[in-house]
Fold this sequence. Notes:
- Chain A: One of its GO terms (molecular function) is cytochrome-c oxidase activity.
- The complex is a heterodimer.
- In chain A, 63% of the residues lie in helices and 0% in strands.
- By secondary structure, chain A is an all-alpha fold.
- The N and C termini of chain B lie far apart (57 Å).
- Chain B contains 5 helices and no strands.
Amino acid sequence: MAQANLSPEATKTPPIEGHxxxxxxxxxxYFTFNIDHKVIGIQYLVLAFIFYLIAxxxxxxxxxxxxxxxxxxxxxxxxxxxxxxxxxxMIFLWIVPAAIGGFGNYLVPLxxxxxxxxxxxxxxxxxxxxxxxxxxxxxxFLFGGAQAGWTSYPPLSVIxxxxxxxxxxxxxxxxxxxxxxxxxxxxVTIWKMRVPSMKWDQLPLFCWAMVATSFLxxxxxxxxxxxxxxxLFDINFGTGFFQPDAGGNVVVYQHLFWFYxxxxxxxxxxxxxxxxxxxxxxxxxxxxxxxxxxxxxxLTISIVGLFVWVHHMFTSGTPPWMRIFFTISTLIVAVPTGxxxxxxxxxxxxxxxxxxxxxxxxxxxxSMFVFGGLxxxxxxxxxxxxxxxxxxxxxxxxxxxxxGGSVFGIYAGIYHWFPKMTGRMLNETLGxxxxxxxxxxxxxxxAPMHELGxxxxxxxxxxxxxxxxxxxxxxxxxxxTLGISVLPMLINVIWSWSRGPKAGGNPWNALTLEWTxxxxxxxxxxxxxxxxxxxxxxxxxGIQPPQPDQPALDEA
Amino acid sequence: MQGTVDxxxxxxxxxxxxxxxxxxxxxxxxxxxxxxxxxxxxxGFFAVYLIYRSALAEWPPEETEVELLLPAVNTVIxxxxxxxxxxxxxxxxxxxxxxxxxxxxxxALMGTVFLGGQIYEYATLGYGLRTNLFSNCFYLMTGxxxxxxxxxxxxxxxxxxxxxxxxxxxxxxxxxxxxxEIYWHFVDIVWIVLFTLIYIxxxx
Lengths: 556, 204
């Protein structure tokens, strides 16, 4: 949006109470309790990435076990614990905190011309709930590890109950609390703290996505908390909420769980859609196609997304009328999602595309996500779902959406905003190598799973029938490729952060407000707040992108 | 998204919202958003309760009948305390700190009586958390509400503690007072739903 109008009469706002006014960030500032939204954003991203590596190693260990039909690499109970914690950590401590906490906190104030989030201290508190949650999950391995899967369905989670299962519950409640705090902060910030000249229809699409995400988190997370509290009481205090012999009903837990955990897939993809809507127009040098359609479709997804959770329970004795209702509502979610996909394709159409690493991941995401979305439509249809329920088809589907979708999106975001965050450019050659390895690895790992599922291989098991061995070994090779694919990125980030070429304020010639401040942005983001004089995506219509490195900005 | 040319860059009149945490609008809006989320958690409990109530023939089972008189008195106390706390808020809006303190002390006392009544009820009911599915629901839901009453009490005591400093709250500066009041109303609304579900509906 954004051309900065840096006229002298532009507003100077009073400094924020409690903000450290450091001339420059030192590395150790990122390890302290800091209330600057940019520090918190980077803290989220780095911590989440560490958890990503840990949970990724868990996946590689599991795939090593699955290279042979027998259980000869690890004990089945260890396999169960790895399975549970791999899913839990990837969802709650990698994708959600990286996409929402990391990019959301870093970008939202910068994109709307605010000096910080509405509640900086609450923001820091929300972040610092994550390390103890991670410690609880990893520490649970000392007690055998939670083994009931990331869904922790009773009665299994109660029968096998141990200290580790309770630790798992507390960890998930902690990250849930963090997520609610974050959502309150995002909603109030975007609602009340936009620079006065920014109208709602000039809000960058990433911020629209954060509005939709926050609404969804605010309404669904507490219901999961309710379910987990009841489960905690069942395990530790002898209640019978989900104990059939005490009159309780296990399916009630499934309802409470999926009322959150289905929307959670939108929590993991809506911010990514926001990242896509920022990356694609910048690197295709074209105005985004259908700004309003993209903004409204985010809101539609978050509302319809609240009414589809039973499609996870088609085989739980769900009555036929419910299957029909939830099949239809599930298929309806494909419509706003399709609107977004077509808008991005239309934006690419005829654009002057620059195949930067960010753009490669964005385009890769388009193809992966369409594939995962289509297999999702098949799964949302009750008759087919009943056939492949709890098989590897499901595993293949959600990994296409979560890895090919969310993780590709986070990568695209990192390549796009790394210069803004660190002031340095990433190496493009390593970036391309990273993309190629990731793209091949993703398809090699998760495509065979669809066929395995169709043939009837069940998920969540360490041993399987020898007839499935060929495709499983293919998937294992893919998993190792994915494991290796992270290395070029790690090397790239670490090397470029200290030695990379200087980025300048606006290396991509983008028009949103975050590029109107130097890279990395100073504390409180701007000396004088920018003014919004045009839409955020008006590329190719003669608007000169701001070049904030010119000394005019820092003076004043 | 059509770019509007704003000839008044970041108008200086509209910067109030950038004062951050000190800005009352932000804090009140944040609290209301948060309470909406809290309410959804209670809705999870309400849903569980209603599912089991509709599934079981006998609800509540005979050995776990609820007492009505004490909770009814308690309800009257809690509901009227919402009025009392509002008088305190009205007082400070007119700059009357003594009035604020008086009514907030009364509210805190009423809240304490409510919690005391709840503890007495627990002690005299003759059944515990584990007795059956009804008692599971009963103790968990009323207990969770009691926890929220306790948090509300802490907020009120915090307001009272701060109001000792002259000028901490005045006619123009009373966001903390208002937030404690909003929270107290929230606790009250949840109780009305709970009371209806658990106590009134067991009569039928």
